[in-house]
Design goal:
Elements (H helix, E strand, L loop, with lengths): L1 H12 L11 E5 L2 E4 H12 L10 H20 L6 H15 L6 H16 E11 L6 H19 L4 H8 L5 H4 L2 E5 L6 H9 L9 E3 L2 E12 L3 E9 L4 H15 L4 H8 L3 H4 L15 H9 L10 E3 L2 E11 L4 H14 L1 H17 L2 E3 L1 H5 L17 E5 L2 E4 H8 L7 H24 L1 H30 L1 H10 L9 H27 L2 E3 L1 H14 L1
Antiparallel strand pairs: 1-2, 1-13, 3-4, 3-6, 5-6, 7-9, 8-9, 10-11, 11-12
Helix pairs in contact: 1-19, 3-19, 4-19, 5-14, 6-7, 18-19, 19-21, 20-21
Length: 538
């Protein structure tokens, strides 16, 4: 089967290592030498994965590795490395492989520890927002910044936060909450906001800061240990009129007299999504639900306790307490928090940290004269041919104006000048990625393994697997020539086994053809020494 063949192929190729330190040649294909160390590493890495004792034969594994090298040669001859599909897959894998190298492990570890602290402690803040559009001009941005600074100064001079919030804040909820966002924990706000909230001391105002929404500053009102998460069931009456109030009060009285909560939910609740579960909701932490709902839920302490009726914008509720889920230990949460940090705004902070380090390591030069060309209002209508001056250099790599032109041509949401910083950062990361295989041997090794393994896979796909599944005539001919070894005399009843055998047949023929085409020389004395050494180690 295809899976079996590819597994074998993978075992052979997955850990191919080449080292210049050991010059002892084990074998060569058309004069291209393969070292003892290269084969030894392949064999020893695969040893733990091979269950069948017979498959641990050093001679057999050497033959398999020679076959792999022959297949690789054939794949290059057929130029399978030049196909768009191959290069697309390599690029995808390369980007995945590079990702960990773009993270500062120590910094990421700090972010994870921060996330745990912010899960363990909830913070209560009030804020003022002055909105700034992503496409805002420098003048509009400055105006917003001056406005947020003015609001902050008024509070510092003694004015009431609530009154200033009502006068200045563009947050639509300010009319009801006066800027108070209540308690929240990690991952409930955009990362810059969360970061400032936990870095500001209780009772203090932060400095103005920017998010995608605009300029903010905040005041920390309180910091408390988090209760973790709570699981509750609820009963909802959407009618907020007197009739609805009478109905919810009657239900509450029934509960006080011993009525079954789940039965009342089925009978009366307007939340159809939870009725079938007796009103049961998914567990939640602070900052997830509407404040009145959250407060009522967390105020309950014993399983089975119910709240008094309360109202939200959705109607009247009664909540029944089921269970609390305290914050787990750091050890228990580490993997979960790491994944959350990587997929949240925290990852962006990690990227910026890496970027800062790269900028300090690289010799980066921006050529002002070449850059000044982009100050022209009609630059996006310019001809690319005229933009051939060197715009910037990163170490020994020179980047021409035309690349920045290609960058800005479809990015009209920002002024050209503002786009240059983004472009520069991208070019720094591009330089890092393109040079990683030259600066990191481990990365180069793993990438080469994948490139070669995929090439051989594509060759097998073309020469063996596709033929065995699509060549019906070939399958039938093989069956009739070998009919005696099959249980059933009808082709259709043996098709699966025939396909498997035909694959083996095609692969053997391919190997035989390649062995004839290429010259393989094994250094017998070197092999005997290696065999003796490996058998002794076993």
């Amino acid at each position: 089967m295809k899976i079996k063949i590819f597994t074998t192929l993978f075992l052979i190729t997955s850990f191919a290592v080449f080292s210049q330190k050991d010059s002892a040649i084990l074998f060569s294909v058309d004069g291209e030498a393969v070292s003892v160390l290269e084969f030894k590493n392949v064999y020893q890495k695969n040893l733990n994965l091979i269950q069948d004792k017979d498959q641990k034969s050093i001679k057999e594994n050497l033959d398999l590795y020679i076959n792999f090298k022959l297949k690789l040669k054939e794949a290059y001859r057929l130029k399978l490395n030049e196909t768009s599909t191959y290069n697309r897959e390599i690029e995808t894998y390369k980007n995945q492989l590079i990702a960990p190298y773009l993270q500062d492990t120590a910094y990421l570890s700090k972010l994870v520890k921060d996330a745990y602290y912010r899960t363990k402690y909830k913070v209560n803040v009030s804020h003022i927002l002055v909105k700034v559009s992503r496409n805002a001009t420098p003048a509009d941005t400055l105006m917003a910044y001056n406005k947020i600074q003015k609001a902050r100064k008024e509070i510092l001079s003694g004015k009431d936060f609530k009154k200033v919030a009502l006068s200045y804040s563009d947050d639509q909820s300010v009319k009801t909450n006066f800027g108070n966002l209540g308690f929240f924990t990690a991952f409930k706000m955009v990362y810059p906001f969360e970061n400032i909230a936990y870095q500001t001391k209780v009772g203090q105002l932060s400095e103005p800061f920017k998010t995608n929404y605009g300029y903010h500053f905040l005041k920390v009102n309180d910091l408390q240990l988090s209760e973790g998460e709570v699981e509750v069931a609820h009963l909802l009456i959407r009618d907020q009129s007197r009739r609805g109030k009478y109905k919810i009060d009657s239900i509450y009285t029934s509960l006080q007299n011993g009525a079954n909560f789940e039965k009342l939910v089925v009978q009366y609740s307007d939340d159809k999504s939870s009725v079938s579960k007796g009103g049961r909701l998914s567990k939640f932490g602070v900052g997830k639900m509407l404040k009145p709902f959250e407060k009522a839920s967390f105020n309950l302490k014993k399983p089975g306790d119910v709240s008094m009726p309360f109202t939200t914008q959705y109607g009247w509720h009664i909540v029944k307490f089921i269970k609390t889920y305290p914050v787990k230990s750091f050890k228990e949460m580490k993997n979960e928090l790491t994944e959350k940090v990587r997929t949240s705004g925290g990852a962006r902070m990690s990227d910026l940290h890496v970027l800062k380090k790269l900028k300090s390591q690289y010799n980066i030069e921006v050529f002002k004269k070449a850059k000044s060309v982009f100050n022209s209002p009609g630059i996006r209508a310019a001809k690319k041919d005229t933009l051939q001056q060197v715009l910037l250099s990163i170490n020994d790599t020179k980047i021409k104006q035309e690349r920045f032109f290609e960058y800005i041509i479809n990015r009209r949401h920002k002024p050209v000048d503002a786009l240059f910083d983004d472009f520069l950062n991208e070019e720094i990361f591009r330089y890092f990625k393109e040079n990683l295989k030259n600066t990191n041997p481990e990365f180069a090794k793993i990438l080469k393994e994948y490139e070669e393994g995929l090439l051989v896979f594509d060759l097998m796909q073309q020469k063996v697997w596709n033929k065995s599944s699509k060549d019906t005539l070939g399958l039938k001919n093989y069956f009739y020539k070998n009919k005696a070894k099959y249980t059933f005399k009808d082709f259709s009843k043996n098709k699966g086994q025939v396909m498997n055998d035909y694959q083996d047949f095609l692969e053997k023929n391919l190997i035989a053809e390649l062995r004839k085409k290429h010259t393989v020389k094994i250094k017998k004395s070197t092999f005997k020494k290696l065999e003796k050494q490996l058998n002794y180690n076993e």
